[in-house]
């Protein structure tokens, strides 16, 4: 018997998904209790496909997804009520202001009386720090404000789980921090699934995450555990020109390069051979990890 407070559980068991004969995901299994959980994968790895299934928008080809003891296929309507999904490309009505937009969402979702909707709007505006802009036309919002308003629309129906796709894409650093802070605040009371190809999002807000590669879960755990699995040293070295850089890139996984006055500074992951050039070993970070495991 589950106790109250642990009911937010999401369980994904042996889920596979194919579109005609094209298998996109294979035997995906993981479960999440609380907090912010990340789904990391390169472009086209199947993140959106997985989120669509978790939100009960599409069905797994095989396997089962349960949220709050509800099956996403059998109880799709109830699951949709409990889940708020903000895709990367969502639409807002530019001619409305935030207050009108949220009121419209409130009515659409039948979240309560007029007073109930107004109270809810006040709450989500406060949470997303949009109260000051509530009566401004959405068309004049910055990309960061639009994203926060997108999250506000999802929050209107008070879902138990929120799924966000690439929440910081295209935002300036300050707005990225705002969005991450907002997600962390929401995660105190709701389960958040964050799908991204960006490791800095994962590092900033996720306690646990999965890394999807070749249709399956390549890793599941904490960012620190992922880092500690890197077997090869990450190093920095200096080359004089692009010719030398190309030679290095043929043998090693080059992570980044920076043109400096005295040459090109290169960060790379060593292979098994001890290199015959001078280098400094550095602490690996999650960007290194992504390249290492990809
Ligand atoms: N409705 C569909 N019909 C056919 N193929 C599809 C469909 N949806 C997704 N796919 C295919 O499934 C694969 C995974 O796509 P998906 O959009 O889930 O990846 P993603 O990790 O979300 O990518 P991105 O980060 O670029 O959004 C792709 O090869 C895509 O072409």
From TrEMBL:
Keyword ATP-binding tagged: yes
InterPro entries named among the record's database cross-references: AAA+_ATPase, ABC_transporter-like_ATP-bd, ABC_transporter-like_CS, P-loop_NTPase
Coiled-coil segments on the chain, per record: none
Any Pfam family the entry gives: ABC_tran
Region forming the signal peptide: none
Keyword annotations: ATP-binding, Nucleotide-binding, Transport
GO molecular function: ATP binding
Residues in ABC transporter domain copies: 10-239
Family: Belongs to the ABC transporter superfamily.
Name of this chain's protein: ABC transporter ATP-binding protein
Organism: Paenibacillus aceti
The organism's taxonomic lineage, starting at the top: Bacteria, Bacillati, Bacillota, Bacilli, Bacillales
């Amino acid at each position: 018997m589950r106790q109250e407070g642990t009911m937010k559980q999401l369980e994904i068991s042996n889920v596979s998904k194919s579109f005609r004969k094209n298998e996109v995901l294979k035997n995906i299994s993981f479960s999440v209790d609380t907090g912010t959980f990340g789904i990391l994968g390169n472009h086209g790895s199947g993140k959106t496909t997985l989120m669509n299934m978790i939100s009960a928008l599409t069905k797994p080809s095989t396997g089962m997804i349960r949220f709050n003891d509800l099956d996403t296929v059998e109880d799709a309507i109830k699951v949709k009520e409990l889940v708020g999904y903000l895709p990367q490309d969502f639409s807002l009505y530019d001619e409305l202001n935030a207050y009108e937009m949220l009121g419209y969402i409130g009515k659409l979702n039948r979240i309560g009386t007029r007073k109930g909707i107004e109270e809810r709007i006040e709450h989500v505006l406060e949470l997303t720090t949009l109260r000051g802009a509530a009566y401004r036309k959405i068309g004049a919002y910055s990309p960061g404000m639009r994203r926060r308003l997108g999250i506000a629309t999802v929050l209107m129906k008070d879902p138990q789980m929120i799924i966000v796709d690439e929440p910081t894409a295209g935002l300036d650093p300050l707005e990225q921090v705002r969005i991450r802070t907002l997600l962390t605040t929401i995660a105190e009371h709701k389960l958040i699934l964050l799908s991204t190809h960006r490791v800095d999002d994962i590092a900033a807000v996720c306690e646990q995450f999965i890394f999807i590669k070749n249709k399956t879960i390549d890793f599941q755990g904490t960012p620190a555990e992922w880092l500690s699995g890197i077997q090869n040293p990450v190093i920095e070295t200096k080359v004089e020109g692009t010719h030398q850089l190309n030679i290095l890139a043929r043998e090693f996984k080059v992570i980044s390069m920076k043109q400096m006055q005295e040459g090109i500074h290169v960060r790379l992951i060593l292979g098994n051979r001890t290199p015959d050039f001078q280098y400094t070993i550095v602490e690996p970070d999650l960007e290194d990890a992504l390249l290492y495991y990809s």
